[in-house]
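Page 37, top half.
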Amino acid sequence: MTTQQQDMAQAPADVHSFAKPAEAVARHLDLDIAVNFDKKTISGKATYQIENLAKGNRIVFDTRGLNIEQVYLGEEQTPTTFRLGDEAKFLGRPLEVDIKPDTRLVTIQYNTTANADALQWLSPQQTAGKKHPFLFTQSQAILARTWIPIQDSPGIRITYSAKVKVPKELLAVMSAENPMQKNSTGEYTFEMRQAIPSYLMALSVGDLVFKPIGQQTGIYAEPATIDAAVYEFAEMDKMLVAAEKLYGKYRWDRYDLLVLPPSFPFGGMENPRLTFVTPTVLAKDRSLTSLIAHELAHSWSGNLVTNGTWDDFWLNEGFTVYFERRIMEELYGKEYADMLNVLGFQDLQNTLEELGPDSEDTRLKLDLEGRDPDEGLTDIAYEKGNFFLQNIERAVGRECFDQFVNKYFQTFAFQSTNTDLFLDFLRSELIKGDEKLAEQINIEGWVYSPGLPVGFQKPTSSRFAQVEQAYTSWKSGKPAAQLNTKEWSSHEWLHFIRMLPEQMSEQQLAELDKAFGFTNSGNSEVLAAWFIHTIRNNYTTADQALETFLTNVGRRKFLVPIYKALAATPEGKKKALAIYAKAKPNYHAVSTSTLDAMLK
């Protein structure tokens, strides 16, 4: 057995992929595709350089809803036989290709179908510019297989190159080395020299322009959005410098952002070299840019060192939230990072309440067999993961912990890891047999037990203490307009809104609205939190703003709690269904799969 075969054999089986990497594994992809907006399809060829480790006669790829036309072997493109296995829920169908022991190249000719959940096709009306259609992909967790036949497991990494043909008036960009302006042919080529897992395969096509921020950083957006985005993200360079200072050199050459239309289901997606980001962070005051720090941090945790299976998702996200808060502390001070920690803890409490404190899904190490891995994308991975790492930092000291994290990123760079591997590394590099330290770090309590460990220290914030004082004054009868809120950031406003009582009178809501303009806020975080109160208390003044928000914004983080609040009463559910019927075409499948189940 070669070392690679041993590595593949020892890696935990990925229950969300049909691929058998210990037998035959893809190493490099040459993609040659055309994007057809009229038919809403992508068609072309995916050519893989493979390693037939077992010298066997098959290689297995993941597909879901793809039309496989033909498969060829070798440079001479000799047709070979292939089979699509039975459909499995969430997973799609395995594509088994017959190969020879010495096969090095496999070419799959295919096209996508209407079931390609990774692809979001937007009409001109759904874009900022309203003139041209738009396409973007969202491959995480296991949707890459809906637009490319691929070994769709985070434990398998490939390098890739691509040729993409698009309408001449549009620009194509990928998670790779990108063009900075349109050409006259509509044909673009891409190169990704660093090996990445399949969920980081990304493509977007639209009426895009590029503007630089620094030497290594810049922004792609629609012409109507570019200037606002350049202003909002002006501190990207500083973030990159702060990140490198903490955890070593950025390993992906450039760090650019693509600002997507509002239907994007996530805050951001850390596609290497080109983070996809929601326009809901364009608050005009740079107050929501911790999201960019988060996506940038993924360049180390997630992209450089990747969770080997979706059961280990906390390794991607817990590290990233921890690192994001460290970047924000480096740039804006400890008091700022403390606010983010408190808001994160509030989100975590909500998730624990929702899932139930004894739910197995509140453990860091998950068991998602037979389920959609998207079910693991909760605040447990993000916030419980972050607080576990903060707990280790407290136990060993920041300097020692930073050395450990640096060594972790260097040791596992461009590889996949898993919970067991990480914990072995933690024991050998940090705990080193020290029983008292092992007790403080409490692996069992954090990683394998539900809820939060006994003795968990809740985060606090001095800036929020002042918000709490203002809130108490208001509750005691001080008019809202007289509260001292002049210096408040988005985070302080969010904390204030989250503190408001569940039951409020029309008069109280109107007073707050008049003093602070919540219903007409340009800040999506503030709006989404405020709408929960307006829905609960039937404050109809906000109804139009609520409908506008829900029909324009596709970010799942906002949609789910708002629709849930609406669906809590028969009258609200009626309203929710009416809005959803209008808004659903603007949402990505990642959002609609959750909302369909909630509103049925």
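Page 37, bottom half:
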Amino acid sequence: MSVDSKSQQNSMAETPPPWRPAGAKTLPVGAESIEETIVDVRRKIYSRSVSGWFTSWRVFFVFATQALFYGLPWLNWNGRQAVLFDLGARKFYIFGMVLWPQDVIYLTLLLIISALGLFLFTAIAGRLFCGYTCPQTVYTEIFMWIEKRIEGDRVARIRLDESAFSLRKLRIKATKHALWILVAFVTGFSFIGYFAPIRTLGADLIALTLGPWQWFWLLFYSFATWGNAGFLREQVCKYMCPYARFQSVMVDRDTLVVTYDTLRGEPRGGRSRSIDHHAAGLGDCVDCSICVQVCPTGIDIRQGLQYMCIGCGACVDACNQVMDKVGYPQGLIRYTSERGMLERLSVAQIRQHLLRPRVLIYSALMVIIVSVFFAALATRTTLRVDVIRDRGVLGREVAGGMIENVYRLQIINASEQELELSLHAIGLPGLTLAVADQPALRAHSGAPADPAQAAITQTASHLVIPPASNRMVPVVVRAPAGSGTPGSHHIHFVTTSTTRDGLIDTEVREASSFIFPN
């Protein structure tokens, strides 16, 4: 390396980079201090507009995710909202499925699949979720697009913020925040619409008759969206998001990440197009800092992979445009692995290294758990019965030489059709079952009658359960006194649902015990 090149590098190291605020104290390369952290938190990032392949994908995912988020609550299914998490009724409607608290296993499997998917994608290609589909990234992109349309591109926004207060500045800022608040409010309303019928919610909002909790969550979520996407932005990704901190344990030398090719780009520096930069001892990087200007988190990818990088690829698009202008090959900044860059591997060789043990293990676990999840959904019964012994009425002898036990059957109809049920008990000779009426049960156990349940009970073993409903049904089981010895005996409750043609549709058996008194 020539003396001139060395002196040029030294001068570059001593000169504050263009992304450091004017007047900030220059610290040694790699040094960390409280002052540097405070400056980084307080500085505002003015990201530059960029176009390219990765930018187009980000725009696509913004439209796709928001069309799904805003549109899904308005879809109807069987005369109701297609997706509704009714916390008050403790029922989740997801298109043709009705899930109850007893179906928490499906939520558990879904969370495990999501976590494994995140681990798998991170091991393969870094923070793809953060860069393209994370709500923080998506809403930041929307708010930044509004900001650029109202205030202009990077230079115009910097000049506006540095200018003195004026009516023009007030008008521009007020317009921007009004649009931000509108988007945030619509977002909060759509979010609440997943937990309350959105059409009813809209009518109540217009009439200003929302409940206190609905007002709270509407305003809270709207304020959080406005604050996170409008003000905090990259600070959420850099300092608040836990995923940014532990992603390094899932990334190795074969993970595809946004990478600056130091072997090709260094030593960086400005140059004339008329000279041979290789002969002058320069790399392909012209040190334009555009890759820093377009970065939504304000990092310099040329300093190596950093946990603040969200893998959006904006710097890749920006650098490729610069390479085209100066006549150099694209790919100075690109998606590649550390091994691929250092060992100069081909694309095919890099892909071969993706199939490593951790990826294969994650993939195998994903296949197994996804298969179990869909198998469980496919075999899921729409009739669920839980047997609860009435503790107020133990086994006792009644008229006719019979022993009587009282139970409560919690019957859940998870389908959207009315079910006709037949109940009977088996396990002891001469066992009979009858659905008790509420006044009789109250006289036996002292429990208050429930008018809503009394409407569906009858003095027979046949019931009709409305669609997507949950009922507690009191039943009386009797057995001849001589059919068993004193103590507890195993019995089963058999609940059968029949079709309108009289065919057996579903049969559920639940074990319990029958007590003969001494």
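Margin note: The first strand starts at residue 76 and ends at 77.
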